[in-house]
C-alpha cells in the first residue's frame, strides 16, 4: 500500500524534525544549565596558558603563602587546633574552583566567620566540660585533646549545616536575601565583629586565661575579666607579641609604601611565623617562659567523617547566620571584581558554590569559609586571572600540611594572635565611615552605628538579626515622614512643582494639587489625610456640619414653607410671585453651573456653599505619581476623601497613577458609581485642564487668563 | 526734665502694648492648651439641656444596663472576681468624661483587653501558688481569697503601668504608633483574641477545671486538656449554659430583626442574669448540682490603694501591649464616630485620656479599659450626644455596686461565660474578611491570616509583636518586587508611559527611558541595575571588555605603528598617504559628532563604538519620579550606572526627581565633575528634548520626524 508507505516516512520525517527542533531548543538549554551549575566547564577548556598561566602561578603562590599564617591564626579564632585552619584553606578552595563563578576571590578562612564559628564551639564545648583525667599535661585540669576533638566536630557539623542552608537558598533562587544586608550594615557589622576578634585574641597576647562568657554583653564581661587578670600577664608572651606586632606593622607599611616597586608584597607573616618558630624552638620559650605554643600538629590528611547531626538542633541559628554573613561577604567581593573585570557573577550559583564548599569541607573537618578581602586583593593584584590560582594556592597548603606542618609545633600562639590583629587593620579603618556617612547620609550612619553597637553588645548572631530589623525599620521610618506639598504650575509649561520650594510656580485658582513624597500605605495614610486637610486649608468637619445644619434647617424651612404654602394656598396671598422669582433666579444660576459640572452633577448646589466658605476651591487633585502600591487602608482613606469632599461640593481627581496602582485600585473595588474611572488623569495638567473646563469658564471666561492670574488665590 | 518725662510714659505704653500683645497671643494659646487637656471645659459649659439631655439619659441608662452583665462577665476573663469588673465600668468612665475627646464611645471593660489582663494574672498568680490553709472551703486546696486578692493586685498594677505608658506616649505625641496597627492586622488580632476568649471560658460552660498553660501554643494545650476532661463535664453547668445561650441568641436575633420598631433593645443579658440568679438561688444549683457560682460580692466601694510597683518588672511587656491594643481600639472607634458626626478626635489627647483613666482606675483596683464596640454602638444609636451618657451609665453601675451587688452572689459563672460568647459574635463575623480581602487585596489578606495564626499560637503579646513585624515586612516585600518598565512617548503629547502596557506609545529612537514602580533603596538597588541592563538590552560588561580590548589593541597597534613609523620614517616609504587618508576621514566624522556632544565631550569617540554595538542607543534616561528618598547604596549604584554607561559612550540623565531626592543626592556628594547637575531634568520630556538636540540632528535632521518614526528601534 503506497499511501501508507508514502505517508509513513513523511510522518516520520515530521517527527524527526520535531525531535530535532526540540533537541535544538533543549540542548542549549540543558547545556546552559549544566554550564550554569558547573561553571568550570565553560572556562577551563578555553583556558589560555599563554595569557593566564604565569599570572595564576605567581598569584597562586602569593595567596598560598598567605593561607598558611592566616589559616593557623584564624583557627585559633574558631577555637580549633591550627591544622584545621590549614585544612579549611585546602578542601573548600578545590570545590569552589569547580562551582564558583568569580575568578578573583580567594576562598578560605576569614576572621569574622572564624569568630562566629568560635563562639559556637566555645559555647557548646566549654573547658569546664572536659575535666582532665591525667594531671600530666599540666594545663589546670582540662582534657585538651578531648575538648579540641569535640570542638572540631562541632565546627564541622555547623559548617555542613551552614553549607546546606546555602545550597538550599541557592536552589530556591534566594540569593536576593543578601540585599537585606545594606552596605552600611555590613561595614558596621564587620567593625563590630573585629572588636570581638580582638577581644578573643587578647588572652594570647597577654598569656592569660580569662573565663568564658556567652550570651549578650559577653564581650563586656570578657574585657572586664581580662583587665582583672592583667597583673598575671605572662611577660614572655607579651614580649613575643610586641616584637611580632612591631615587625609586622613596619613591614606591612613598607609593603604599602613601595607597592608599585615590589613585584609582590614581602610575605612578612610567613617570615614572622618561621622566625618565631625558630626562636621559640631554640629559646625553648614554652618551658622556660611558659609561653603557650601551637602544640602537636598531626601530619597528613584525615579521612572524611560524617557530621554529628545531633548537634544541628543547637547550632541552627548560628549556622544560618554564618551562611548569610559568609555569602554576603563572598558576593560583595565577587561582584566588585566581576564589575571591575567585566564578567558576570551569578548570585544564586555563588550561593550554591559556597554551600558545596562548606558542605564538602565540613566532611573533612573544615570550618566555614568565605572569601577573604586581603587574600582576594593579593590574588588579583599579583596577576591572578582565574580560579587556577586558587588551586595552586591550595597545593601549597597541601604540601605544608603533608610535609612541613609539624615544624610549626613550637610556634607561640601570641604570634598568631598578632597576625590576626594586623589583618584587622582594614576593618578598623571602617571607623572612618562615621565622618563620611555623617556628611552624606545620616540615616545610614544610624544604621552603621546601631549595627556596631548591636554586634558588640548582643554578639554576632542576635546582633545581626537586630541590625537587619533596625535597617528595615529605617525604610519604614523614612516613608513615615513624607514631605507633603501643594503643587503649582511653572508658568508657560505643563510642569507642576512644589510651591514651597519653587517661588516662580503659581497655584491654579480654585484647584489644590496635593502630593506626598512617598507612597501612601497604612502607616502614613492618616498623616496623608491630616496633611491634605491642613495644606488645603479646608476644614472639612466644619463644612460638613454646616452643610448638615443647613440641610436640616432647609428641611425644617421646607416643612414650614409647605405648611405656610398650604395656608397661603387657602388664603390666595398675592406676593408669592415676588419671592419665588428671587429663588428661581438663584436656582437658575445653580443649574447653569450644574451643566458645566459633568461629574459632580448631583452635588452641584452644595458646591456653591463649599466655594463660598473656602476661597472658591472647587477641585482637589491628588498627584499619586509617587505611589507604588495601595493597600486596604489607603483605599479606604481615598474613598473617604472622595466621599467627604464630594459632600461639600469639591471635585477630587487622581493624577499620575502608575499602571500597577490603577490595577490594584480596581481590584480593591475602589471605582464605583460615585468614583468613576473618569476621575483618573494621566497627568496633573490633564486634570487641571479638565477641572478648569468644568468650573473655570463660569468665574473667568478665558483659560489663559486664569493661568496667568493664578497668584490671586494666595491672598 | 520734660524729655525724660515725655519719653518714659511712651516707653511704658510701648511696653504695655507689648505685654498686651504677648498676652493676646499667649492667652488663646494657653486657653487652647488648657481646653486641649481638659476637653470637658470646652463642651460642658455649652451643654444644651434641651438638645441633649433626653438622648443622653436614654443612652446612659441603656449603656449602664449593658455595663452590669459585661462588667461581671469580662471580669472572669481577667481572672478577677466579678465585682472588679463593675468597678472597672465605673471609675475610668468618670475620668474619660473629663479628658476624652470622643462623645460617643463607651469606655469600660472589653473582651480582648480583659483576656490580655487575664493572661497576666494567671501567669503570675497560678492556683498552685495558693495552697489552701483551711480545708473548709472545699475547692481542692486553693486559697481562693488570697489568690483573688493577689490577682486583683496584679491586674491593678499592670493597669497603672499601662496607663502610664499611654500618658507618656500621648505627652510625646506618639499617637501615631497606632498607625502600625493596620486595619487587617487589628481585625485579625481581634479574631485571634476571640478564640482565646472562647478557650478561656469553655471551662465554665462545661464546669471542668483544666490545667493552666502559658507561653506559646498554650491555647492548643488548653484545648487538648479540655477535650481530655470532657467526660467529667458538670451536667448542671452545661444545662444552664445551653439554656442561657439559646435564650440570649434568640432574643439578640429578635433585637436585630426588630431594631427599628423597638425604642431600645431588650436588655436580655440583664434579664438572663437576674433570671439565672433567681433560679440558681431557689434551685440551690451550687450545692445541689455543684454548679460554680460567682460567690461573695463585697458591698460598697473600696478605698484607693497604690499599685505594687515591684510587679512592674514582670508585666512591662504585657502592660505595653495592653496600652497599644487598648488605644488602637479606642482611637479607631473614636475616629469613626468623629467622622460620622463631624467632630475632631485628637489622637494624642485620647491617648492621655485613656492613660489617665487607666492610671486612676488602677488605684481603685480596676483593670485596663478601652471603648467597647457593642456598648458604643448602643450609646450612639439610643441617642447619646455627649459623654454625659457615660456618666449616667456609671451612676447605674454605682447604684448596683452599692446596693444590689450582693444579690448576684448565686449567679452561675456559666451564664457569664455565655454572655461573653454572644458578645463575641461580631468578632467571629470578621472571618468574612477572608473572602472580602481575597478579592480586594491578597497582601492584606496575608497580614490578616498571619496575625490570626500568630495570635492564636503565640498568645496575645508575642503574637502582636510578630504580627506587627510581619505587617511591616510586607511593605518591604512590596517595594522589593517593583515593576520595571521602559517608557515611550504618547504621540502628540509630552506624556511618557510604559511601553508594555500601552500599545500606542512609541519609544524614542536611541533613547531608553527607564522607570521603577517604587523607590530604589538598598534591598532593590541590585534588582534595579539588573532590570536596567536587561530591559535596555545593553550588555555593559561585554561592551566594557570590548572597549578595553580595543583600547589595549589600539595601544599595541599604536606602539607597532610607532615602531613601524620609525622604520618607515627611516625608509621613507611612499604609500603612507593612502592609509592615513582613510583614518583621517574616520576621525573627522568622529570629531563632527563630538562638537554636538556637549556633555560627554571627552567620551565622544567611544560613543561611536557603543552606538554601533547596540542599535545606536545614545542616551539612557532614568525616571526617578517614584523615588522618595535615596540611601548610600542607591547613590553608589547610580554612580556606577553613570560611570559605566559613560565609559561606553552613553549619556545618562535623571528625570523627575523630587526636591527631597535632589537634596539627598547633593548631600551624599553624588554630583561631581563627571556627574554635573545639568544631567538633572524636571521631566522626562525635557531630558528627551535635550538628548535629541545633542544627538538627534546628526542621525536624523528633523526632530519632529524622529518622534514620528520612533518605532524603528524596536526592530
TrEMBL record, chains A, B:
Q: Specify residue ranges for compositional bias: Polar residues.
A: 596-612
Q: Which UniProt keywords apply?
A: Membrane, Transmembrane, Transmembrane helix
Write out the transmembrane intervals: 74-99, 160-181, 235-254, 266-283, 309-330, 351-370, 390-408, 415-432, 447-477
GO CC term (a single one): membrane
Where this protein primarily resides, as one coarse class?
Answer: membrane
Q: Where in the cell is it found?
A: Membrane
* Membrane topology classification: Multi-pass membrane protein
Q: InterPro entries in the record, alphabetically?
A: S04_transporter_CS (IPR018045), SLC26A/SulP_dom (IPR011547), SLC26A/SulP_fam (IPR001902), STAS_dom (IPR002645), STAS_dom_sf (IPR036513)
- What is the protein's given name? STAS domain-containing protein
Q: Per its record, what are the GO molecular function terms?
A: secondary active sulfate transmembrane transporter activity
Q: For the region Disordered, what residue ranges are annotated?
A: 583-612
Q: Please tell me the species this chain comes from.
A: Esox lucius (Northern pike)
Record domain STAS: where:
501-691
Amino acid at each position: 500500500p503506497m499511501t501508507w508507505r508514502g505517508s509513513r516516512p513523511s510522518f516520520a520525517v515530521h517527527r524527526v524534525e520535531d525531535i530535532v527542533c526540540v533537541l535544538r531548543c533543549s540542548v542549549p538549554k540543558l547545556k546552559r544549565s549544566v554550564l550554569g551549575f558547573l561553571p568550570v566547564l565553560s572556562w577551563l577548556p578555553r583556558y589560555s596558558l599563554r595569557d593566564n598561566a604565569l599570572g595564576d602561578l605567581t598569584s597562586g603562590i602569593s595567596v598560598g603563602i598567605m593561607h598558611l599564617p592566616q589559616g593557623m591564626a584564624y583557627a585559633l579564632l574558631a577555637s580549633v587546633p591550627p591544622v584545621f585552619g590549614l585544612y579549611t584553606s585546602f578542601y573548600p578552595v578545590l570545590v569552589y574552583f569547580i562551582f564558583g563563578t568569580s575568578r578573583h576571590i580567594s576562598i578560605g578562612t576569614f576572621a569574622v566567620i572564624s569568630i562566629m564559628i568560635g563562639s559556637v564551639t566555645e559555647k557548646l564545648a566549654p573547658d569546664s566540660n572536659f575535666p582532665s583525667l591525667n594531671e600530666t599535661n599540666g594545663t589546670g585540669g582540662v582534657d585538651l585533646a578531648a575538648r579540641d576533638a569535640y570542638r572540631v566536630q562541632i565546627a564541622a557539623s555547623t559548617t555542613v549545616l551552614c553549607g546546606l542552608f546555602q545550597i538550599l537558598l541557592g536552589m530556591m533562587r534566594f540569593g536576593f536575601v543578601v540585599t537585606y544586608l545594606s552596605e552600611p550594615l555590613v561595614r558596621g557589622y564587620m567593625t563590630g565583629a573585629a572588636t570581638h576578634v580582638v577581644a578573643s585574641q587578647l588572652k594570647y597576647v597577654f598569656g592569660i586565661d580569662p573565663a568564658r562568657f556567652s550570651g549578650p554583653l559577653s564581650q563586656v564581661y570578657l574585657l572586664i575579666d581580662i583587665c582583672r587578670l592583667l597583673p598575671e600577664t605572662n611577660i614572655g608572651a607579651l614580649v613575643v607579641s610586641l616584637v611580632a606586632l612591631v615587625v609586622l606593622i613596619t613591614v606591612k607599611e613598607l609593603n604599602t609604601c613601595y607597592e608599585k616597586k615590589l613585584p609582590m608584597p614581602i610575605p612578612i607573616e610567613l617570615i614572622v611565623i618561621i622566625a618565631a618558630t625558630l626562636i621559640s624552638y631554640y629559646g625553648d620559650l614554652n618551658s622556660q617562659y611558659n609561653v603557650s605554643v601551637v602544640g602537636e600538629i598531626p601530619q597528613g590528611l584525615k579521612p572524611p567523617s560524617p557530621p554529628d547531626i545531633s548537634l544541628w538542633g543547637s547550632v541552627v541559628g548560628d549556622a544560618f547566620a554564618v551562611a548569610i554573613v559568609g555569602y554576603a561577604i563572598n558576593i560583595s567581593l565577587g561582584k566588585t571584581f566581576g564589575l571591575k573585570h567585566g564578567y558576570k557573577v551569578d548570585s544564586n550559583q555563588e550561593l550554591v558554590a559556597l554551600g558545596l564548599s562548606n558542605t564538602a569541607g565540613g566532611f573533612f573537618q573544615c570550618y566555614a569559609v568565605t572569601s577573604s578581602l586581603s587574600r582576594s586583593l593579593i590574588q588579583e593584584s599579583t596577576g591572578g586571572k582565574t580560579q587556577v590560582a586558587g588551586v595552586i594556592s591550595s597545593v601549597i597548603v597541601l604540601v605544608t600540611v603533608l610535609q612541613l606542618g609539624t615544624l610549626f609545633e613550637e610556634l607561640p600562639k601570641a604570634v598568631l594572635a598578632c597576625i590576626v590583629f594586623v589583618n584587622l587593620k582594614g576593618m578598623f579603618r571602617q571607623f572612618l565611615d562615621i565622618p563620611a556617612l555623617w556628611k552624606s547620609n545620616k540615616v545610614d550612619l544610624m544604621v552603621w552605628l546601631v549595627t556596631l553597637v548591636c554586634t558588640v553588645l548582643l554578639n554576632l548572631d542576635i546582633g545581626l538579626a537586630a541590625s537587619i530589623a533596625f535597617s528595615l525599620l529605617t525604610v519604614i521610618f523614612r516613608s513615615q515622614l513624607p514631605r507633603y506639598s501643594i503643587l503649582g504650575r511653572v508658568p508657560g509649561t505643563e510642569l507642576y512643582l512644589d510651591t514651597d520650594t519653587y517661588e516662580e510656580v503659581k497655584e491654579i485658582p480654585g484647584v489644590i494639587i496635593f502630593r506626598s513624597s512617598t507612597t501612601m500605605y497604612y502607616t502614613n495614610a492618616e498623616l496623608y489625610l491630616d496633611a491634605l486637610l491642613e495644606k488645603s486649608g479646608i476644614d472639612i468637619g466644619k463644612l460638613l456640619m454646616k452643610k448638615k445644619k443647613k440641610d436640616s434647617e432647609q428641611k425644617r424651612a421646607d416643612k414650614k414653607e409647605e405648611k405656610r404654602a398650604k395656608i397661603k394656598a387657602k388664603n390666595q396671598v398675592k406676593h408669592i410671585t415676588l419671592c419665588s422669582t428671587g429663588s428661581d433666579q438663584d436656582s437658575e444660576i445653580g443649574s447653569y453651573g450644574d451643566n458645566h459640572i459633568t461629574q459632580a452633577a448631583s452635588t452641584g448646589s452644595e458646591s456653591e456653599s463649599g466655594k463660598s466658605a473656602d476661597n472658591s476651591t472647587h477641585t482637589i487633585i491628588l498627584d499619586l505619581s509617587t505611589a507604588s502600591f495601595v493597600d486596604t487602608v489607603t483605599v479606604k482613606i481615598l474613598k473617604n476623601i472622595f466621599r467627604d469632599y464630594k459632600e461639600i461640593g469639591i471635585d477630587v481627581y487622581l493624577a499620575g497613577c502608575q499602571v500597577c496602582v490603577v490595577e490594584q485600585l480596581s481590584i480593591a473595588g475602589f471605582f464605583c458609581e460615585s468614583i468613576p474611572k473618569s476621575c483618573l488623569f494621566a497627568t496633573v495638567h490633564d486634570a487641571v485642564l479638565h477641572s478648569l473646563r468644568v468650573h473655570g469658564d463660569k468665574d473667568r471666561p478665558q483659560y489663559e487668563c486664569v493661568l496667568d492670574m493664578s497668584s490671586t488665590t494666595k491672598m
